[in-house]
Amino acid sequence: MNYISTRGAGAGERHTFSDILLGGLAKDGGLYLPAAYPRVSADELARWRALSYADLAYEILSKFSDDIPADDLRDLTRRTYTPQTYCNVRDDEQAAQITPLKTLGVENGAPLSLLELSNGPTLAFKDMAMQLLGNLFEYTLAKHGQTLNILGATSGDTGSAAEYAMRGKRGIRVFMLSPHKKMSAFQTAQMYSLQDPNIFNIAIEGVFDDCQDIVKAVSNDHAFKAAHKIGTVNSINWARVVAQVVYYFKGYFAATKSNDERVSFTVPSGNFGNVCAGHIARMMGLPIEKLVVATNENDVLDEFFRTGIYRVRKSAETYHTSSPSMDISKASNFERFVFDLLGRDPARVLQLFRDVEEKGGFDLAASGDFARVKEFGFVSGSSTHADRVDAIRDVFEQYDTMIDTHTADGLKVAREHLQAGIPMIVLETAQPIKFGETIREALLREPERPAAFVGLEALPQRFEVLPADAQHVKAFVASKTGA
Ligand SMILES: *Cc1c(COP(=O)(O)O)cnc(C)c1O
Predict the structure, then answer these.
(1) CATH 3.40.50.1100 occupies which residues in the chain?
(2) 3-124+238-438 sits in which CATH class?
(3) With bands split at pLDDT 50, 70 and 90, how would you rate the model's confidence at 483?
(4) 147-228+455-481 belongs to which CATH class?
(5) What does each C-alpha distance from 359 to 311, 314, 363, 364, 394 come to in angstroms?
(6) How many CB atoms lie within 10 A of CB 363?
(7) CB 236 less than 6 A from any atom of ligand 1
(8) Ligand 1 center–CA 343 separation, angstroms
(9) 418-428 residue pLDDT tens
């Protein structure tokens, strides 16, 4: 499997899965994609139906990472996708499924269900990919005798998923910046209660943007970056995207009886990583009818799929909402889909994303390419705070099921795209306990708390408070990496 950049540089070079695993953007600023998507045969699809999650993950990943020996990859997936790691299930009997399908009911003739992706250690779907990444990083670094210091900024989900994936891993340290006293008590406790010596929580005296600016400043110091082997685990990481392909297959098998049926998925979206994985599953041959992109008030993606206009937002136009993990101003994985939409023409992708940088967006409305969005199965919708509150209340009353704010955005939009006879699977991206304030508002009661999280906020916390200044952060990192 060879990987290419969406912007076309180094077209003659070979990049394996392992080559791009630890890197970020391609050197021309593009994103990596396989030179061609592997197709799944009818025989394979039939055989995969019976597999465990771990073995299904092996089958799918092996098509994208032929440079990793089969036995090693099988061992990695079996160690990653265990009922012990994905133990925070609603129903204990479902733990072996890793991503159980929770049936709600039939609406407008369409069976409606939730695919539970948030039963991992941090109760958000990011664990699905990040746990694999932790094991893949450790494996690859050990093979090449290397070490890695991950530097990141978080306002919640990503940072904690990265820490829980990398804790205790040989050859890896995590330096995670978060805004001091600005996260919820639950999220703070989730991260800061980790006592592993390779995890460093840095509470920055500032806001989330300050944390992000510091990460950028450190990453732009190329000498420091090289000397201290600084890397990232952001959402453009290819391995994260491909790990997410697995649960589209798993969800399909759970919602259907035979491989002649089609299903639709609704995906609460921010950086377009999750739904990009759905697109890839469809390109591999999974019978997907529609991919419904659900946004909150930050509707960059909904606007594109409705109008053909992609217009990134300024920070002043980016709203802080009650589904905060979808509060984005631009969608960092979107370029991967645009590459396919334009018939894989890197010169045009380069031009469009130059326009994004220089003019703040692009307009495909008049071009024939936009009409092809439907051929790829994409439709969209957006949601507001009032919609979320209604959806949470309604699902609780009708189906006795508590959902989080992001899943509620998905459910609201899914209901606008139901088709009789076609199962609609809404991806559940987080558990309600992470966003308790809105649950209390909607239901006038406390969110459900998985047993493992009882007393979390009372655990001792380990973190370092630093001023919002890159020099202080560099000095701290240097003192711990000893280079
Ligand atoms: C990250 C996240 C999303 C958005 O996923 P993308 O891959 O960025 O589109 C949605 N919901 C939750 C709970 C998340 O943590």
Answers:
(1) 3-124+238-438, 147-228+455-481
(2) alpha beta
(3) low
(4) alpha beta
(5) 9, 12, 11, 14, 42
(6) 16
(7) no
(8) 27
(9) 999 999 999 99
